[in-house]
Amino acid sequence: MTNNVLRILVLCAAFSWPVAQAADPVDAAVASGTAVAAALASPDRPKADLERDAVAKPTEVLAFLGVAPGMRVADMFSASGYYTELLARTVGVKGQVIAYNNPPYAKFAEKGIATRYADGRLGNARQITAEVGDLQLAPSSIDAALFVMSYHDAYWRPQDGSWNKTDPAELLERLFAGVKPGGVVVVQDHVASAGGDVAKVVDTLHRIDPALVKQDFAKAGFVFDGESKVLAHPEDDHTKLVFDESIRGKTDQFIYRFRKPIP
Fold it and tell me: Residue 4 above 60 pLDDT?
């Protein structure tokens, strides 16, 4: 990584939520930027992850999250763990990552999960598999949480019964209780046009209206704290299924940050 790129990363992180463990926000940004760069450069990362980097833009996403060494972070609906691995390598041995999946997510990604954690890889990552209603997070224990292209699934209602009905309000209620005051949650997802039946849009397109996400988080008690447009693709008209080959990897995506207020 060049000095100019690292400098940009540090500056981006400096305007993210300051890391609680550091007294100076600039020091926090340096710690975060250096750790993220090291995580991305790890020679032990799977080849498929390296191939995903160019599309996913994890440098910018993790800088926006503000993750740094020593933090406790939750990767929500983590699937096979692309971001779990980056988070685990960033927070280091003094930090911890909670990789949360509900049973359908875990089943869908079971092969990737088995490979990801084989032979004791990611020893600072703790897997939790539970229905939303059974998710237990220690109160005020999480510095940051991340949903990547997965929050819309809280509204998914497939007719084949492959996904048990989840309650978005309950999910965010449990997450809000688990996040520390001042902690943040970042949501990255595919943009849907405003209006329409949410369950139908999610089922047919796997997209979600950004305004609904803001509304859900506000109801849960979170405060909107910023937006990144690094994955915006205005050429996407929001009408195609995100897996359509003509748009896959190029969907218009929003990235929102929410913060739990400090009393």
Answer: no
d(CA 216, CA 211): 9
Q: 98 pairs with which residues across the strands?
A: 74, 126
Say how many domains are in the chain: 1
pTM: 0.88
DSSP state of 152: G
CATH of the domain at 189: 3.40.50.150
Print the domain residue range for 150. 3-259
CA dist 183 to 145, 187, 206, Å? 8, 14, 28
Name every residue whose Cβ is closer than 8 Å to that of residue 65 and which is 6 or more positions away in sequence: 16, 73, 144, 146, 184, 186, 257
Instruction: Kindly indicate the confidence band of residue 27, based on its pLDDT and cuts at 50, 70 and 90.
Output: low
Looking at 82-167, list the stretches that DSSP marks H as alpha helix, in order from N- to C-terminal side.
Answer: 82-91, 103-108, 110-116
